[in-house]
Amino acid sequence: MPKDKTLASSDYQALAELRYQLRRFLHFSEQAARNMGLEPQQHQLMLALTGLPAGARPTIGTLAERLQIQHHSAVELVNRLSAGGLVRRSRTGKDRRQVLLRLTPKGEKILRELSVGHKAELRTRGPALVAALERAMRPTTGSQRSTSEAPSGFGKAG
Predict the structure, then answer these.
(1) Is residue 88 classed as helix, strand or coil in its secondary structure?
(2) What is the SS3 assignment for 110?
(3) What is the mean pLDDT of residues 59-64?
(4) 39: which strand partners?
(5) Contacts for 46 with CB less than 8 Å, ≥ 6 apart
(6) DSSP H or E segment with residue 91
(7) 5-14, 42-51, 113-122: which range is least confident on average?
(8) Alpha carbons within 13 A on the beta-carbon side of 62
(9) Which spans in the chain are helix H?
(10) CB under 8 Å to 48, separation ≥6 — which residues?
(11) Main-chain dihedrals φ then ψ at residue 155, nearest 5 degrees
(12) Domain extents in the chain
């Protein structure tokens, strides 16, 4: 927690703009997934699976961590993707208990189409997103009205 809890109105504006720009991109992403017949979290799991860091094992536990969801939620996502022919499970190890995941060719094709669209969207909206992030990260200048309390109406029982 930062020592200085003083925020200027420009800090709230910067945070609000960042949230807006993030939400615009996420809205685009959610709609693109739905247009391809996927739920947004299914798309996220497919992307996380394909984009795992080198050396990471493509297990349900790893993907649950990458998506910040519960293990059982990741299992359900994999079940639905598997039923749709987009993800395949394979057993590994001598006792065959560990399950590894990979996209099927059908899943790879859908993810490639979505990713091309996402890259294009980032080229269009990315500069505004980066600018909003940079603005939100700037230290408070103190040149504008500052408050050590939350804005009026924030966090108050009414």
Answers:
(1) strand
(2) helix
(3) 96
(4) none
(5) 38, 81, 86, 87, 103, 107, 110, 111
(6) strand 87-92
(7) 5-14
(8) 19
(9) 9-35, 40-50, 60-67, 71-83, 105-137
(10) 63, 66, 67
(11) 70, 15
(12) 7-138
What's the CA gap between 34 and 58, in Å, rounded? 24
Q: Which of 54, 52, 47 is nearest to 62 (CA)?
A: 52
Backbone dihedral angles phi then psi of residue 8, each to the nearest 5 degrees: -90, 160
Distance CA 19, CA 101 (A): 33
pLDDT tens-digit series, residues 26-56: 999 999 999 999 999 999 999 999 999 999 9
With contact defined as beta carbons under 8 Å apart, do 100 and 89 qualify? yes
Q: Is the pLDDT of residue 57 over 70?
A: yes
Burial class (CB within 10 angstroms; exposed 0-12, middle 13-18, buried 19+) of 134: exposed
pTM exceeds 0.90 for this model = no
Q: pLDDT category, 142, cuts 50, 70, 90?
A: low
Residue 55 phi, psi dihedral angles, 5° rounding = 90, -15
7-138 CATH: 1.10.10.10
Structure tokens at 139: 């230290």
